[in-house]
Amino acid sequence: MGVPGFYRWAVRRVPHLRAKTSGPPYEFDNLYLDFNGVVHTCVNDWTLQEQEEYLFQLIEAQLAVLLSLVTPKVLLYIALDGVAPRAKMNQQRSRRFRKAQETEADGIDAVIDVFDRNAITPGTPFMQRLSDRLRSWAATQAAAPDLQGLSIVISCDRDPGEGEHKIMDVIRHHPEHTHCLCSNDADLVFLGLVCESEHVYLLRTKPNYEKRVRTDTGQSQAPETQAAVDSDGAAPVPEPAATAGPMAEDYEMLSIVALRSWLCSQFPDCAPNRLLADFVAMCCLVGNDFLPHIAAVEIYDGGLDKLLAAYCKLKTASSGYLTTEDLTLNLPRWRGLLEQVAQEEAEILLDMVGLGWGPQQLPYRGPGPVGPNWDGVSVVVSPVPRKTTAGQLSAAMSKQGCTVQSVHQLKQSRGPASWLVRFADPASAVRTLVSTRRIETQRLQVSWAQLNRLQFEETPPEPAEASNWQQELHRAVRESFEYWLGPENLPNDAFLRRHVRQRRDRFVPLRVFVMFRRLRVWMQDQAQLAEVLRSSDQLEVWGEGRHAWVRHKEDHSRRPHESHDQVERQMACLELLAARQCVEAVQMLRPEYYARYPGPVAAGSPAAEDVAAVERHRSVAFLSGIEWVLHYYVRGCRSWSWFYPAHYPPLCAGLAMVQGPLPVPPLDEPVAPELQLLAVLPPQSSPLLPPRLRPLLEDTSSQIADFYPREFETDLKEGDKEWQAIVLLPFVEEKRLRQALFSVLQESDLSQSQQAKAFVAEDAILRSWSFSAEKPLPESRASRDPDGVPVQFAEAAAAILLLATETARKGGKGMPGGKGRGKRGQNGKGAAVKDLKEAPGHGEDALVPVTDKMPAASNSEATSLSAVTALLSRNCCSERQCSIA
């Protein structure tokens, strides 16, 4: 999965990311298939699940589709996931347990789905059969006339490592070739971004493919089967459905070169390799398969844009990068980045303890506060449906003890009607002005009436008797303030609690209240408000006019469960935040955060009561995890045994406080497939294990039974999708797993690793050998233009080059605009865009239009990344800074 949401962000931000070409078939030296995704796609279309042969035919049909899209000239590399590092096993375990729980809860799915998808895990008999079938397919295809001379490599599940990382190991050793990677995993975007090869492209299914398949009723029909029985007497085998999986039109090609060039153009003073390493490291904060995401940098709420804006302010080109050349973290520079994130983190924590700003108020569009000419009992109601009778309207307005005296329809030529409603007393009219009234589903707007401006359908009503409506209005205003600051409302009103806690004397400026809709209708004069409130026996007013402040005589802001220490820390947090000491402000509320997010933790973690130790433990582990991920992407697996030891992340402020150096985890070795199966499979999938191992999962008296709960909690934040839920499973202990495993099996019984197998046919002779990424490959055979770009991508590469150079000429002002709407932002405006517009150097001239008629670069302008980098440095002054912020 990589970084959820990254693909959508990149497509919206990066021009030419979706490469525009003349269409398939595309010609590359090497084609790489991250094959587990292909298998899962085919399982989706596997309607006769009792016949495994049909699934294998679907897989082979999908391989034919992919080879019709991309023509590899040197290498076809098919990689199944092997044993993963421990850091990835935790995520695999969560996904499998969650799926098993959902399937068990929905009994019909368990009946329909004969095949357990958890069989697509290294070490299962199914994966062994699939590997054998792929090797057989490769031997057959290598001998085909149109694939003569093409090396076909099958890396099976017994070859350790995730599929995408086995692929990148090959690319690292052969950067001179052109490479096409087929996968929907965002990991491959990052892997391609930091590799040395300048010509890496990503083939993936279009985002709407899954939606199209779900709504296509034809896909759910079982295909017709052969009428005749096979020659060996087996059951009839269905013909492979040519349209079962994604077809050519369901794929799109992404240019990793475009993403690199865009990043380099936004930061023209930065060395490209250092910039890209920093970018990958920063992306760890928004979460991936190995680390949980930091709440303050939620990718769906503009988190990446905020990080890039903060990165720009660091001036890394002159002051130092976030990462060193040996891929370790430069912690002082990270502190500078994290301090900028800490302000938003403080707001998140304040919202968690009930001191947030709350949702943004809708703009008031009424006539404003009542005027001196109002009679105190008459209001105008609109829009009223045309068919509404006087009796229906009178009943709708007679709510909450209000008494209607009469109703009168106003003259209106078209559209919904407006009515004058006269109440029996001023109290009813004053209360109705700020109340919600409806007729059926139609919400009515109520405003005070100016009789001399109204025209009636019939005879106008007689003027109302004079009434002291001001007295009723003042009483309503006092009662409202007493309610707002009183015990019934204040403990649950985060907005007002925030204002009360901002001053130790608890006084709140009157100007805060005049923005409320009720006072927009009733009273806006702050001097008059102050005089009205002074007559209350529950309130105290200090100051005059616009400088008046109000408070309740008693402090009702403390909630029943809050201690005096908590209140003091909340006040200290607000004071530090006002002084822009954001890291220190966050530290004030860290006990509440770690109490709210304890979760199961790995063995050896500090006790939950020791908040400082918990924070340091998680912070050091998280920063070590960023280093681990960076090594994993750039150079390969740094440690097979490292993992992040908690379900929840630390606070950014805690990360900023860590002093180096960070611990280096041991390299260790990949575990046996059987051990990984024990680590990731839920008890419902125990049939996938060898018979002797199944009791370890099924038997409640098993020595590791506590690793396999059938009931567990999930944490789903408001606004998140179901797949984003945090699955709160206990962490497995490798030592106990090994002891349990070897109490049943001998080490000699475990599966042995198998190196990737290569097949090639030359001069009608088929050869096979154990493939190694380090061994040389034949020279590049794919067609290229004079600059080395694949011919079908030359035009797109020229457009990328032109945009990058133009952006660099303007000092990095090339970030396209956008609404940046977040899915859970409190104000819904997209904070990322606000930050971008407030950054120095951002303006209308920062936008570079991208059109289909953009002139092409000349042949003398190289389109490689190195050429782009050279042009950036040539066209930019050393003192220029990016404007991505």
From TrEMBL:
The HTH La-type RNA-binding domain, residue ranges: 467-558
Organism domain of life: Eukaryota
Compositional bias ranges of the Basic and acidic residues kind: 832-845
Region described as Disordered: spans on this chain: 212-244, 809-845
SUPFAM superfamilies given in the database record: Winged helix' DNA-binding domain (SSF46785)
Keyword tags: Exonuclease, Hydrolase, Nuclease, RNA-binding
Xref: Pfam families: La (PF05383), XRN_M (PF17846), XRN_N (PF03159)
GO molecular function term, any single one: 5'-3' RNA exonuclease activity
PROSITE patterns, per the entry: HTH_LA
GO cellular component, one term: nucleus
Record bears the keyword Cell membrane: no
One record GO biological process: nuclear-transcribed mRNA catabolic process
Similarity annotation: Belongs to the 5'-3' exonuclease family.
Name by which UniProt lists this protein: Xrn-2 protein
Organism annotation: Symbiodinium pilosum (Dinoflagellate)
Gene: xrn-2
